[in-house]
Design a protein that fits this description.
The complex is a heterodimer. By secondary structure, chain A is of the alpha+beta class. Chain A contains 12 helices and 9 strands. By secondary structure, chain B is of the alpha+beta class. In chain B, strands 1-2-3-4 form a 4-stranded antiparallel sheet. A 3-stranded antiparallel sheet of chain B has the order 5-6-7, covered by helices on one side. Chain B is rod-shaped. The chains are: A alpha+beta, B alpha+beta. The interface between A and B is medium-sized, with 27 and 30 residues. Chain B: Keywords: Centromere, Chromosome, Nucleus.
Amino acid sequence: MDETVAEFIKRTILKIPMNELTTILKAWDFLSENQLQTVNFRQRKESVVQHLIHLCEEKRASLSDAALLDIIYMQFHQHQKVWDVFQMNKGPGEDVDLFDMKQFKNSFKKILQRALKNVTVSFRETEENAVWIRIAWGTQYTKPNQYKPTYVVYYSQTPYAFMSSSMLRRNTPLLGQALTVASKHHQIVKMDLRSRYLDSLKAIVFKQYNQTFETHNSTTPLQERSLGLDINMDSRIIHENIVEKERVQRITQETFGDYPQPQLEFAQYKLETKFKSGLNGSILAEREEPLRCLIKFSSPHLLEALKSLAPAALFCRIQKLLCYSGSHIQGTQDLSSWQKDLYLLFVPLYPRC
Amino acid sequence: MEQANPLRPDGESKGGVLAHLERLETQVSRSRKQSEELQSVQAQEGALGTKIHKLRRLRDELRAAVRHRRASVKACIANVEPNQTVEINEQEALEEKLGNVKAILQAYHFTGLSGKLTSRGVCVCINTAFEGNLLDSYFVDLVIQKPLRIHHHSVPVFIPLEEIAAKYLQTNIQHFLFSLCEYLNAYSGRKYQADRLQSDFAALLTGPLQRNPLCNLLSFTYKLDPGGQSFPFCARLLYKDLTATLPTDVTVTCQGVEALSTSWEEQRASHETLFCTKPLHQVFASFARKGEKLDMSLVS
């Protein structure tokens, strides 16, 4: 076994926390049951790692085996990377997508290897019709750097792929091209969506965030479900306030639903605003150019945070501000209809002169 | 009291007359007062008397009313048992009707396309089936507004829902629903065939079944007699029509053999036809049966 491969496996295993080690090794399925049983996992980590490296040497682990272990580690630690979302388009009137995994893998590998001689490409299929691709980049003269790979998660027969943000940005166009051609699409576009949580990105992009539906079989009537919003039932709240609070609750429920929200960390809106002139004529209205601003919301869990804003009745004021100034807002990109709903309901505050 | 008078002799007679007059005056006023008092007392008596009469009348009326009520209640009690049972029967009948209606609404699932009105529109449920087996259900929640839009759904991402919606949702919702039903039923059917092949006929497969999310490309190798001497066949099934459960293109090749003998060639061609015309798991069921027949002939 190559020195570099041994070092690579060693470093990967060292990253794995002890409580996950057996699970990941079993998923790797490279070392047999018998071999694993000979390892005493209660030792100090260094000793365990030494023993495992010895076993890998016995079995002559190759670079592809090591790369597979790395993919599995990343699958267990998805949150360590920030994932970008890419969307591909087919040309008009194209045939039905007859996706062949073998063909895709071959094609993808060939395209990358033709462009860059030194590149390591590994694949691992998962059960949800997704394929994890790991690419270690090299150049014409240097071997691939195994410690800075890019990961791509592609859901076959969908236009979506998720890519880990990597430092080596110059390879992104090539990667995009390889993905597009191998999956028989026309072009690829980066969406304005980024998160550490792949599941949340998937939920947003595949529109799977709300999977509760009303049927005649359901025994719990929807109206009785609690919203989970804590409202301080102050005995001094009089009737008018209660009506307002109920209205806010209803709108929140209609917008967000009862399900757990996808975990977004920030949302950024680029606004181009032209102001209408009031009675006195304001400085802003006299401008030729629209006012451009960038509003960014960030939070460890943005959507839950916005959902809890509702009882504070802040969003009504935000809406009022919007209507009042009567300005024309132009987003810079086509938002999906879901994002549009969110946008319309929670338009950010922008500075009023 | 008589006033003291300085003129004694006349005073006596004057005092006498005046005093007498005074006495008479007081007598008169006293008697007037008495008569007034008497009159007022009499008036009061009269008033009280009329009041007594009124109250007595009221009391008699109330007594009569109470008696009347008691009599009618007694009459009611005699009829009460039959009334209650009528009410209970009505309630049971209504509950039974409600139960029936609920059961009918639930049974609509078996028609394949059912729905429930929601606060903003309708939630359509598409229940897929293949060869009489009820398979997965998919939901589409529609908001009834101009334009009609899909609020959320559980259709898998690889089904071209957005394409179908772009074509038909605004103009002909029936066509939209039926088209979506077609796609989903066909997908469920293909998935069912692939699942059955993997689970029931794994013995005849010599390698893993290659499939894709839409189950419209299946690739596998199989042997008619597992463990026997024959060469394995490679089959590649393409389902270019996403609304069909049978493949549009089938290629069967024989692995590792350049030129096939005529019998093998015939078999290969017949397999191709079989895959094109019959569902996958049924073809393999017939292979398994033929295999059993062959075994039986060998034994006997």
